[in-house]
Amino acid sequence: MAHKQTIKNNKQYLIFCHCIVIKIERFINKIEYDTVHKMDNKTDLIKKIRYHFGLNIYESNVWLALLNKGSASVGEIAEMSGVPRSRVYDVLESLEKQGFAIAQLGKPVRYMAVKPGIVLDRLKSNMLKEAETRIKLLSNIRTTEEYRRLETLHNKGIEPIKPEQLSSYFRGRINIHSQIKHMLNEAEKEVILITTSTALKRKISLLKPIFKKLKNNNVNIVVGATPTENKGKTSGKINFTKELGVPVKKININTRFCVVDGHNTLFMITPDKEEENDTAILVKSPFFSKALLTFLNAAWKR
């Protein structure tokens, strides 16, 4: 069973890497277009180059200058990029090592940018190699002595738990979804999920197989969704009950939280807008869960 789960996780990691590559490819195409058309907002482009390619501010400016010029001397590069001439030499050396620029023989030495498409192919190759290496590591890590020692340390450290250790927070939608998945898979008696219809739509593929397993294990499942609108279309039009295989009730409270077995509560503290800034807090307290559900029951009766 663990082997099957590992295979599934490996496939998900490859899919994630593939999505990253697609995003980089689209951005490469945008760079080629913006370079030709002299993009007005250069600062915005520099920021995106730094984000997507992991270059620092000087490297980004020099590479963009080379893309615009085609071939340039150190002096020309310094003038076009705004990077101090004394630093341009180090920056060009770094770009050469990373495959973003090449030197042309002659005096004075001139440099030219590597075509964005070639950079993209190199990034794809490196990313796939890294993914394969990581998959092999993840596939074998459970059999190592180090992993068994970590499991032992965790099991020994579970008790006693101090009050200040009863809560933790998660940032980023991917991390939050992973925690929800973990909590639901550990459920034994009851799962209560309150969210918006937009967020519920986003989690259908995640929840559907888990709910099926929970139903087979006779776990009570309660789902409520607040209708939300998106560009004039109501996402609540989706038949969530049919999609998830459990009744989904309409509720008019704009909140998102999940309570498992009456003592583990994960609730969101940010609006459901930005993926990277989405933040949730996990509280392991039966008292807190009971208090929260008391307010929910009052809202449910409205």
Largest sheet: 7 strands, mixed
SSE topology string: HHHEHHEEHHEHEHHEEEHEEEEH
**Percent in helix:** 55-70%
Q: Any idea what the CATH architecture of the largest domain is?
A: 2-Layer Sandwich
Question: pLDDT below 50 for ≥5 consecutive residues: which ranges?
Answer: 32-40, 231-236
* Quaternary structure annotation: single chain
Query: Which class do the helix and strand fractions yield?
Result: alpha+beta
Number of helices: 12
What is the number of domains? Answer: 2
**Largest sheet strand order:** 4-12-11-10-5-6-9
Please tally the β strands and state the result.
Answer: 12
- The geometry reads as elongated
What does it look like?
The protein has 302 residues and is α+β, with helices and mostly antiparallel strands. It has two domains: 2-119, Winged helix-like DNA-binding domain superfamily/Winged helix DNA-binding domain (Arc Repressor Mutant, subunit A, Orthogonal Bundle); 166-300, Endonuclease Chain A (Endonuclease, Chain A, 2-Layer Sandwich), CATH 3.30.870.10. 57% of the residues lie in helices and 17% in strands. It is built from twelve helices and twelve strands. The protein has helices at residues 2-36, 42-53, 57-69, 74-81, 85-98, 116-140, 145-157, 173-185, 197-202, 204-216, 240-244, 286-300, and strands at residues 71-73, 101-104, 110-113, 167-171, 190-196, 220-226, 229-230, 233-234, 248-250, 257-260, 264-268, 279-284. It has a seven-stranded mixed beta sheet, sandwiched between helices. Helix 1 (2-36) packs antiparallel against helix 6 (116-140), helix 3 (57-69) crosses helix 4 and helix 8 packs parallel to helix 10. The two termini are 45 Å apart. Mean pLDDT is 78; it is low at 32-40 and 231-236.
